[in-house]
Write a structure and sequence with these properties.
By secondary structure, the protein is of the alpha+beta class. The protein has one domain: Aminohydrolase, N-terminal nucleophile (Ntn) domain (Glutamine Phosphoribosylpyrophosphate, subunit 1, domain 1, 4-Layer Sandwich). It has 4 helices and 12 strands, in the order ββββββααββββααββ. The strands form 3 sheets. It has a 5-stranded antiparallel β-sheet with strand order 10-1-2-11-12, with helices on one face. Strands 5-6-7-8-9 form a 5-stranded antiparallel β-sheet, covered by helices on one side. Strand 1 and strand 2 form a beta hairpin. Helix 3 runs antiparallel to helix 4. The longest helix is centred in the N-terminal third of the chain and has 22 residues.
């Protein structure tokens, strides 16, 4: 088993019309043993930017704290909020700096840029970026997630339709993966703010 699969995770980022959504499951496990059903994998960086971290739980929490520290430094120095593109480059650089002893995390970045357009990006554990216009996925059931997203996604969805699509894609995918699931959470980012909703999933 890969160390990236040790705790289990499922994360999706998906774009809509002037909005973007990011969703994750809630499970924290040790291989096939479930430890907790309320483990946070998505973190808010500012009013229009969130990052999901799939991988080893200790590295997820370490990276969250490091990113907050680096973002606070940036905002103090630059006196403005970090854009999703700048944040992606910062995270990519941080991961590449540790390439010989990497953080075992695969990030998913979702946010709105300065023009209010959706921004989606993901990368591997040493920071190799892959941007997308429609959706990005990470975690132990990425094959399932790709299949469901390709089936359900359509361009320019409004907020409610985007929420419904990403929620159904997540729940259907984790039902077929023993390492993720136990409910989930969806965050929809719009110019008005962030709307978060809990999902109930199968508990078996």
């Amino acid at each position: 088993m890969s160390i990236l699969e040790y705790n289990g995770a499922a994360i999706i980022g998906m774009s809509g019309k002037n909005c973007v959504a990011i969703a994750s499951d809630n499970r924290l496990g040790i291989s096939y043993q479930t430890v907790a059903m309320d483990f946070q994998k998505i973190f808010q960086m500012n009013d229009s930017l969130m990052v999901g971290l799939a991988g080893l739980a200790s590295d997820v929490q370490t990276l969250d704290q490091l990113l907050r520290f680096r973002m606070n430094l940036y905002e103090l120095r630059e006196e403005r909020q970090m854009t999703p593109k700048v944040f992606t480059n910062l995270l990519s650089t941080m991961l590449y700096e540790k390439r010989f002893g990497p953080y075992f995390c695969e990030p998913v970045i979702a946010g709105l840029d300065e023009a209010g357009k959706p921004f989606l990006s993901t990368m591997d554990l040493i920071g190799a970026q892959a941007a997308a216009k429609d959706f990005v996925v990470a975690g132990t059931c990425d094959g399932n997630l790709y299949g469901m997203c390709e089936t359900l996604y359509k361009p320019d969805m409004e907020e409610e339709e985007l929420f419904e699509t990403i929620a159904q894609a997540l729940l259907a995918s984790v039902d077929r993966d023993a390492l993720s699931g136990w409910g989930g959470v969806v965050h929809v980012i719009t110019e008005k703010g962030i709307v978060s909703r809990e999902l109930k999933g199968r508990q078996d």
